[in-house]
């Protein structure tokens, strides 16, 4: 029995990685849920918006690095992030102008917009590969750890080391700041309130003189900004690979739906629920179990519930269970 | 629904995981024409309106007028085109004939949104609040087009409907039917309209709440705002009406003061149940 | 069929013929064969989307599952692992797994409140560990057998053509599960359900080596047509080829491809015939009535959910059939190559470009989009070669040349957006 070591192992292998991953999913899901709430369709191109945006950030990072620009202990990508966001926002607004706006004015059925977003997804996917390639790219620099496993062991005298990567710390911190800013914006500002009004009751919003084009543009901007932030944090934490971002679409959708589509609070809860289940189900619990359980009960195998490759299955299973019991998601979906 | 517009054909799909139902019907602003000066005549004059949603006309040469500070009530049997006439005044219907004039301007070519800016306030029959937003936010959204300080208007609305002040932080969707109607009327008043249009404001509320609402509507009219209202509860509505219109099949059948219509044995027998 | 439609089909046929005359008949027939399969896939998806408005974004899963059938049916059985501790125990474990889920469903229906939740948790968690306890040792036994070549259960050693309907059945089974869950919920959640199940099916196929060797791939799956080497060895064939003045090697590859084409075309024609018949039947009219006004159809006593489930299963079965055909054509199952862009969203492009709700449209879309999918890549290279011709050698030039392959994604996205915008009902609109 060694609870301290067990807790450290749990923090190290489950809580910290899952929190960081959950924050990334939550940011992605927030973008999906905002588009769903206001434009009334699920944007299949969201994963590729993340990929393309992160691609831009990487290009800026390389450029800054080549100029010898660094951000002290923080990754250079953080300086590049605002530039990447701006370029992505311009791109997304251009897409809206060239593609989506026509359908909006036609009062097209939302499912047509879903199909349209598939077309956009193809183009963005191709463009990302064109711009940055399909290879795996690591673009983090600066300090690697906030807490180093070896230093932690030395300082505490525990057998188990605790490693807290700076990218994880950065992810969690950024997510908190961004989410707080988003909620302040939605609940306190005139534009934010007009977005919620538009999502609640489109006709009444129009009758109140709210400009739908402005609402839509702001929604795209926020969604793109969130996508780039989520994508960059994910890329810093793990690595950038265009296809992985495309694959993120399922857990992101699952997060948004579990939480209740159209509900920002739900998107955040959903993101963490999915992340913790994914990590929890695919983590080999042997280490923690050996610390906690008496020797006779310690597991022989890895004590891993599912192989890591089944992480999508976990997101999906959670989704189904939640929908069976709460068909509208954890937080009643609908309004932004 | 399979419609003639291929972009609106969703093939019957109602997948909640990818699409959100309940989008609006109103066209987006920016396509309407301009207002033309047309001095003289009543405050609101919607004259000879003919038109409908599709090929068939619903309104036939329908005329509605309201003077400043007066209450006009449209009554009639089900399917008489009462709400349609109201929507036509508000520009939510394409008119084939006739015109709408408000306060000396011909506004026939204007979009609903532009009419709001010209001083029309409209309270739809259903879906007339922002359900997830608080009462206060609903009123704020009502004042969205105003650039000036609207706090005094909000105080006036709270004076008119004191219950809303108590529930200002509560989401409008959680209020009772009558309270929600008050929010809806309050929201429309926030633009300081010159003409307030109410589509069956008392639908689905109890008789006590109905009397209360009518009292408030009279109060609003006393401040100089003209009221145009469609009502199912014809007798009670005509009692407060300066002017009553009985519509049948999209055309004017009887037009007179509310009291005169109530006194007319023909109207009583046919439309007011004796 | 109108003149316009005939011309459209003639145009696509001409594209393939031109490919044969200018490049090689081998590649032209390759395009034709996969075009035929793509057309079948598009037919299946068109049933779901075109007839019933069901949004399936898990086509890849059903295709992959269908692809499992040739392995399970046609490859020779690995008799060595069929022991009590091996394959039999594995099958028993799977049965137990199904039993646990069945029990959970029964409990979910019979019980209520807290007891229900407690019973469900106990059943599912206990069942999961029981299942793993039974399965894991058996899997170890099976996978330990000749890992380099086998490590799986093997198949039944039956003719591979039998695997095609079985592929359809496998996909139909999965579709029943998905549909029952996603269409039976209070509102329709099919899109996310199919998106998820496709990834799960693929994860199972990649990881469960005992099933079909996972990412180690199954190669040399038996074929329904002769092998090229056998043809080349046969004197009758070489003489016959010489009669055309053809080289026996080329002739053999072309003959094999033509035989496949014949098989695929027969199935495609059968499916078109059946679906056209179905569309004109009372059943088809009912489907359209449901699609055009679900509320009215429900009021008339139509069981909308049941009809939707039916058509979802049918369409998915066709995707499974096509999946089995693809694996048969390739003679190998490589789970690593299944990718949603290629096997889900590309099929959507085919249906949308061809014309939702029109079987002929879907078929045309299948051929045309597949042709583009294959041809845009070389065109991209040629274009990039032309653009960069004047550039000096450097990283930019290399990058541009390397990236030319990705042009096809952009091109197909653009094609889809253009068709959606300017011809929203597709090239051959629904009547």
Write up this protein.
The complex is a heterotrimer of chains A (336), B (274) and C (431). With 336 residues, chain A is mainly α. Chain A has one domain: ABC transporter involved in vitamin B12 uptake, BtuC, CATH 1.10.3470. Chain A is 72% helix and 1% strand. A two-stranded antiparallel sheet of chain A has the order 1-2. In chain A, helix 2 (46-66) runs parallel beside helix 4, helix 2 (46-66) packs across helix 9 and helix 6 packs antiparallel against helix 9 (212-237). The radius of gyration of chain A is 21 Å and the shape is globular. Chain A starts with a helix and ends in an 11-residue tail after the last helix. With 274 residues, chain B is α/β, with parallel strands linked by helices. Chain B has a domain at 33-119 and 228-274: P-loop containing nucleotide triphosphate hydrolases (Rossmann fold). Chain B is 32% helix and 22% strand. Chain B has ten helices and eleven strands. Chain B has a six-stranded mixed sheet with strand order 7-8-9-4-10-11, sandwiched between helices. Chain B has a five-stranded antiparallel sheet with strand order 1-6-5-2-3, covered by helices on one side. Chain B is globular, with a radius of gyration of 19 Å. Chain B starts with 35 loop residues before the first strand and ends with a helix. With 431 residues, chain C is mainly α. Chain C folds into two domains: 3-78 and 145-422, no CATH class; 79-144. Chain C has helices spanning 3-22, 25-52, 59-74, 87-110, 113-144, 163-184, 190-207, 209-212, 228-233, 235-244, 248-280, 282-292, 294-299, 304-330, 340-354, 359-388, 395-403, 407-422. The longest helix of chain C has 33 residues, at 248-280. Chain C starts with a helix and ends in a 9-residue tail after the last helix. Chains in contact: A-B, A-C, B-C. The A-C interface holds A 42, 44, 99, 102, 111-112, 114-116, 118-127, 129-130, 133, 243, 246-247, 249-250, 253-254, 257, 301, 305, 307, 309-310, 312-313, 315-316, 319-320, 323-324, 327 and C 53, 55, 57, 128, 136, 181, 185-187, 189, 191-193, 195-197, 199-200, 203, 206-207, 339-341, 345, 348-349, 352, 399, 402-403, 406-414, 416-417, 420-421, 424.
């Amino acid at each position: 029995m060694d609870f301290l070591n067990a807790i450290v192992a749990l923090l190290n292998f489950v809580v910290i990685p899952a929190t960081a991953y959950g924050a990334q999913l939550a940011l992605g899901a927030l973008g999906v849920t905002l588009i769903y709430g206001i434009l009334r369709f699920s944007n299949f191109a969201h994963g590729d918006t993340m990929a393309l945006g992160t691609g831009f950030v990487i290009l800026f990072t390389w450029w800054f690095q080549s100029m010898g620009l660094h951000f002290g202990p923080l990754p250079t990508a953080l300086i590049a992030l605002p530039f990447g966001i701006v370029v992505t926002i311009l791109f997304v607004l251009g897409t809206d102008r060239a593609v989506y706006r026509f359908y909006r004015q036609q009062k097209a059925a939302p499912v047509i917009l879903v199909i349209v977003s598939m077309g956009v997804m193809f183009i963005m996917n191709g463009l990302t590969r064109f711009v940055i390639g399909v290879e795996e790219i690591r673009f983090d620099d600066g300090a690697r750890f906030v807490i180093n496993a070896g230093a932690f062991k030395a300082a505490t005298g525990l057998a188990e080391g605790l490693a807290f990567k700076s990218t994880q710390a950065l992810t969690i911190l950024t997510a908190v700041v961004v989410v707080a800013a988003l909620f302040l914006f939605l609940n306190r500002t005139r534009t934010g309130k007009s977005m919620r009004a538009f999502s609640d009751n489109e006709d009444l919003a129009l009758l109140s003189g709210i400009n739908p084009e402005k609402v839509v543009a702001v929604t795209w901007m926020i969604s793109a900004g969130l996508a780039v932030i989520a994508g960059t944090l994910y890329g810093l934490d793990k690595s950038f690979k265009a296809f992985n971002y495309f694959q993120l679409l399922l857990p992101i959708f699952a997060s948004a739906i579990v939480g209740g589509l159209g509900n920002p609070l739900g998107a955040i809860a959903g993101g963490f629920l999915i992340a913790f289940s994914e990590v929890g189900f695919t983590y080999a619990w042997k280490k923690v179990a050996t610390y906690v359980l008496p020797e006779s009960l310690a597991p022989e195998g890895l004590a891993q519930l599912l192989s890591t490759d089944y992480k999508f299955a976990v997101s999906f299973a959670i989704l189904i269970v939640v929908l069976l019991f709460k068909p509208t998601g954890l937080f009643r979906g609908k309004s932004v | 629904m399979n419609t003639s517009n291929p972009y609106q054909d969703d093939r019957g799909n109602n997948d909640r995981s990818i699409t959100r139902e309940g989008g609006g019907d109103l066209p987006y602003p920016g396509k309407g024409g301009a207002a033309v000066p047309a001095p003289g005549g009543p405050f609101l004059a919607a004259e000879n309106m003919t038109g409908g949603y599709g090929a068939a006309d619903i309104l036939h040469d329908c005329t509605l007028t309201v003077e400043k500070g007066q209450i006009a009530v449209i009554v009639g049997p089900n399917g008489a085109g009462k709400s349609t006439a109201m929507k036509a005044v508000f520009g939510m219907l394409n008119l084939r004939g006739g015109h709408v004039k408000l306060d000396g301007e011909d506004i026939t070519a204007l979009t609903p949104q532009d009419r709001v800016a010209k001083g029309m306030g409209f309270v739809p029959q259903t879906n007339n609040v922002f359900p997830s937003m608080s009462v206060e936010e609903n009123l704020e959204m009502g004042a969205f087009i105003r650039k000036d300080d609207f706090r005094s208007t909000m105080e006036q609305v709270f004076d008119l409907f004191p219950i809303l002040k108590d529930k200002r932080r509560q989401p409008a969707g959680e209020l009772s039917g009558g309270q929600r109607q008050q929010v809806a009327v309050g929201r429309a008043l926030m633009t300081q309209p010159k003409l307030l249009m109410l589509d069956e404001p008392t639908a689905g509320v109890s008789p006590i709440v109905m009397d209360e609402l009518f009292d408030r509507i009279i109060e609003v009219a006393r401040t100089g705002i003209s009221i145009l209202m469609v009502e199912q509860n014809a007798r009670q509505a005509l009692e407060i009406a300066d002017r009553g219109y009985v519509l049948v099949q999209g055309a004017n059948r009887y037009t007179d003061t509310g009291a005169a219509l109530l006194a007319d044995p023909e109207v009583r027998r046919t439309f007011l149940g004796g | 069929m109108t003149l316009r439609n005939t011309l459209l089909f003639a145009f696509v046929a001409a594209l393939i013929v031109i490919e044969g005359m200018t490049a090689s008949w081998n590649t032209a027939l390759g395009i034709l064969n996969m075009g035929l399969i793509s057309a079948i896939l598009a037919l299946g998806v068109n049933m779901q989307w075109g007839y019933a408005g069901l949004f399936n974004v898990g086509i890849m899963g059903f295709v992959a599952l269908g692809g499992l059938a040739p392995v399970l049916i046609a490859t020779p059985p690995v008799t060595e692992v069929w022991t009590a501790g091996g394959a039999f125990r594995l099958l028993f474990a799977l049965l137990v797994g199904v039993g646990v889920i069945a029990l959970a469903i029964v409990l979910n229906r019979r019980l209520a409140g807290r007891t229900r939740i407690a019973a469900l948790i106990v059943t599912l968690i206990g069942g999961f560990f029981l299942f793993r306890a039974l399965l894991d040792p058996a899997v170890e036994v099976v996978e330990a057998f000749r890992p380099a070549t086998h490590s799986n259960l093997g198949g039944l050693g039956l003719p591979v053509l039998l695997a095609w309907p079985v592929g359809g059945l496998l996909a139909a089974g999965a579709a029943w599960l998905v549909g029952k869950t996603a269409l039976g919920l209070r509102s329709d959640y099919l899109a996310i359900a199919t998106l998820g199940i496709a990834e799960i099916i693929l994860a199972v196929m990649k990881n469960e080596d005992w099933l079909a060797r996972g990412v180690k791939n199954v190669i040399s799956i038996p074929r329904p047509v002769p092998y090229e080497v056998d043809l080349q060895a046969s004197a009758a064939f070489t003489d016959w080829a010489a009669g055309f003045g053809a080289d026996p090697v080329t002739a053999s590859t072309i003959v094999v491809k033509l035989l496949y084409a014949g098989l695929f075309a027969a199935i495609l024609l059968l499916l078109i015939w059946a679906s056209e018949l179905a569309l004109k039947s009372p059943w088809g009219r009912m489907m359209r009535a449901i699609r055009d006004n679900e509320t009215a159809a429900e009021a008339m006593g139509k069981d909308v959910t049941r009809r939707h489930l039916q058509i979802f299963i049918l369409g998915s079965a066709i995707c499974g059939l096509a999946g089995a055909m693809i694996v048969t054509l390739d003679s190998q199952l490589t789970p690593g190559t299944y990718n949603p862009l290629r096997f889900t969203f590309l099929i959507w492009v085919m249906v949308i470009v061809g014309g939702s709700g029109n079987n002929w449209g879907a078929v045309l879309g299948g051929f045309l989009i597949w042709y583009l999918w294959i041809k845009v890549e070389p065109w991209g290279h040629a274009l990039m070669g032309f653009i960069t011709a004047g550039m000096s050698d450097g990283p930019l030039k290399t990058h541009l040349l390397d990236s030319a392959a990705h042009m096809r994604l952009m091109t197909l996205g653009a094609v889809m957006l253009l068709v959606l915008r300017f011809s929203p009902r597709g090239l051959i609109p629904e009547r």
